[in-house]
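Troubleshooting: if your tokenizer reports a length mismatch, compare your output against this known-good record of 326 residues.
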Amino acid sequence: MNLRTSPLFLFAFFTVLFSSCRSSQSFKSLVYLKSISGSKTIAGQHNREPNSEPERWSKYIAETTGKYPALWSGDFLFQQENIDQRWTMIHEAKRQWEKGAVVNIMWHGCPPNQGEPCGWDPGLLNAQLNDQEWQEIITDGTPLNKKWKARMDDIAVYLKYLKDNNVEVLFRPLHEMNQGKFWWGGRPGPNGTARLYQITHDYMVKEKGLTNLIWVWDMQDMSRDFAEYNPGDQYWDVFAFDVYDQGFDPSWYNYILPIVGDKPMAIGECAKLPTAEMLKGQPRWIFFMAWSELVKESNTPEAIKALYHSDRVITLDEMPGWQKAK
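Known-good structure output:
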């Protein structure tokens, strides 16, 4: 291995290079993600229901491959039994960070015109706000706007605990912004989904003081209108792309490159995993994240093992360790 292309060398190099930038100076994990861009890809795994077992699918990967994912992902979720176990999930996030993993947390937030908990369909899906309600939620001080901020107050308690314990979080709210079935999604333009993302970002950062969040802007492989959903460079640190159709096609990769520029880009969700050969041809993906049970349903054990043992893929045992990073 050429020392100057090794992840640890690049990690140290980018730490110095970006020391004057707020995001890179503040976030060890973001520096590391930038350092591997173009050369390596982190193996990631999402863990959703149940929140009482927040490492369930990461353990499946370890049992299958002998290696743990280097990115652990959890979810606040929306059902009562999972809401009741949010602290279990958050404590696992802290444990994963201490083990050296990148921590990713999603938030399937219930519609603000409904209570919490809520259903999946209808609920998160197919319970869209009408145009009048949408205008209300993005207008400061209105009843729906206040309800959304109250919902963020609930979530902020958990994220502040992670901040107090020096845990950096890739935070991915309002994911798949071009997915119109989600109550928050499918609204293009400056007053659409992107505006709600901006409101969410500003409230969490400026009002709640959550400076431990690395903001992820997430889209799905269903429409090539990403500019209509971009909240603005100052609002996101990492771009994530969810692959459920033809997203591994090189045309998607080439479409995304000029949109993200030199910012990190990742495969935010997938059912079928990429191959090492595909990652070699699309080297800018800094991580891939398989979706919970779909990793088992959509991939053979042999394919999972081959990917996790690729020289191109970083697993937990190969991470630098956040306690060592300065």
